[in-house]
Amino acid sequence: MQGLTRSEVTMSAGGGLGPPQGENPLPSGGFGAPPPAGGAPPGGFGTPMPGYPQASYPQQPPQSGPSTMSIASLILGILGMMTTCFPLGILGLWLGARARKAANSRGEHSSSSDNSIAMIGMILGGLFGGLWGLYWIISLVMILLGFGIAFLPFVLD
What distance in Å separates the CA atoms of residue 107 and residue 60, rounded to the nearest whole number? Predict the structure, then answer.
């Protein structure tokens, strides 16, 4: 420690090196200095410099995702495709139609994600709901005809 006098380097109360006892470690007006009298410092982020216009940015509409009805339509359409429960497909078709109608009433065009998801749900739900419904109708007719043919000899006796 060459060039320093004993008064410049003293031990502080915390055990480390610091300024002599009773001296302020920060210079006046530096970091940690109290604000000037009268409140907050002058000039802020909200006031523009003189001679420069206030910046204005176009307002963008809030980004919203697909509606709950269109997602439910897609899920029910997929479930109607994967299971033999045709009412799920019919319900997916109905919810998809409602979701598209709601999206159109909000002014969304046909390429929006809400409309697209609802359309996919309608296609899956209508196609597979109709196919599974037709399957169950044919199965029921076959069962009834089978029972009719099986019991026909007993009825004719």
Answer: 15
> Which DSSP symbol is given to 64?
-
Output DSSP code: residue 108: -
> How would you write the pLDDT of the chain (157 residues) with one tens digit per residue?
466 555 555 544 445 555 556 665 555 555 555 655 665 555 556 666 677 666 677 776 666 678 889 999 999 999 998 988 888 999 999 999 999 888 888 877 766 788 889 999 999 999 999 999 999 999 999 998 888 777 777 766 6
Structure tokens at 72: 């439910």
The SS3 call for residue 10 is strand
Q: How far apart are CA 103 and CA 67, in angstroms?
A: 9
State if pTM tops 0.90: no
Q: Is 38 left (phi over 0), alpha (psi -120 to 50) or beta?
A: left
Q: Which two tokens stand for residue 128?
A: 């597979």
